[in-house]
């Protein structure tokens, strides 16, 4: 929110149109409920494109893993750990841009323009990666990819948190995060088609076509997103697809859910609130540990290839584990929202993943190892619950949330620079030491979530005691 803005309801201007007495509408429970349903229906339709954008975001970032199966390293003469460096350097770009990007988005309040522009840029960078001639070309392209991709995920979380209440965030975050899971599945299907159909067309290697085709698709979708993505509720552009009353409901319900009024908020005040909040730094470190717990996904095609199949079959059998994980994530997030529970949902999904890691380490039997892939992908259910939990635990003011979400996401980004080195080729084909790292990190991840839960329990108890002494009505309570 810009520093010069006044109270959001006052800033609506033409909300009090001749057709509506807005204040009466907001006080009428039946009319309010009807408007809220209409608002969420329109909003869900527009927000749906975030899932598609995240699919392309992940595909453009991870298609290097698929390219590796068809001569990427050999053609570019990569040696030693150079491939791992190319894989991780994209996240160095993320480190530079995450927080400035989210603060800028919070200031301008125009995700439709900003996120679409970022998408166009990373699409072009992906296309140019297909023209790389050596290690340094790929290194530069991947770094630039990180710079322009950095704004998307944290920005998407910020956008979702501007429109949805706490008991709606888990499911909506799941739909966004499912983009990653679907990308692992559809990315393999798309890649197998490109690799099979376009190898050596015009004398160009199939892996080069992979970057060109997928990058071009990203640019085309970005132009569509420009007209579909909503801006923040207080933006005048919201009146183009919402009635004045629906827009007033959108603002009122978020204010009521967070039990705050953010008029007079300054951007840098929110920034300092975030960087001086113990919870933000703890969540940042916890997400970094999660990155190690789920690091197998960087090398998933390589792991599946250990089953002994060729490149195309390998990519095709990568699909079922991720599609299964997508369904479980959606169901789990819905239950998490309804029960207002985060920690136990995280613990359960991580426990299932640990069983998968242990199975994969214990045997090279094809059937058992393939089943283990289904189990280990369930770790991503915990990620959805975790990000929803993080968002509602640092929810006000909104400029604090913008900084906090970017900073928390940076914890995972920083870890992602390192985790590719936990899967060296010399540790294959069973990768027992790599899976050992995943198991240790998973246990530590759950422990850190438990400590965070205990801290929030303490804050809730303190608030309850304070209200009892002062005879105050119930205020904000953290979800556990």
Shape designation: globular
CATH class: Mainly Alpha
The CATH homologous superfamily is termed MFS general substrate transporter like domains
**What portion of residues is helical?**
over 70%
Overall tally of domains = 1
User: How many strand segments?
Assistant: 0
Description:
The protein has helices spanning 22-27, 29-67, 72-76, 82-108, 111-129, 135-163, 166-197, 206-228, 244-258, 267-275, 278-293, 300-305, 311-317, 319-339, 343-362, 366-376, 379-393, 398-418, 432-470. It is mainly α and 480 residues long. It has a single domain, classed as Up-down Bundle (Growth Hormone, Chain: A). It is globular and about 70 Å long. Mean pLDDT is 85; it is low at 1-19.
Q: What is the secondary structure topology, with strand pairs?
A:
Blueprint: H1 22-27, H2 29-67, H3 72-76, H4 82-108, H5 111-129, H6 135-163, H7 166-197, H8 206-228, H9 244-258, H10 267-275, H11 278-293, H12 300-305, H13 311-317, H14 319-339, H15 343-362, H16 366-376, H17 379-393, H18 398-418, H19 432-470
Helix pairs in contact: 2-5, 2-6, 2-7, 2-8, 2-9, 4-6, 4-18, 5-6, 5-8, 6-7, 6-18, 7-8, 7-13, 7-14, 7-17, 10-18, 11-17, 11-18, 11-19, 14-16, 14-17, 15-16, 15-17, 15-19
Short description:
The protein is an all-alpha fold and 480 residues long.
Quickly list its features:
single chain; 480 residues; mainly alpha; Growth Hormone, Chain: A; 75% helix; disordered N terminus; transport
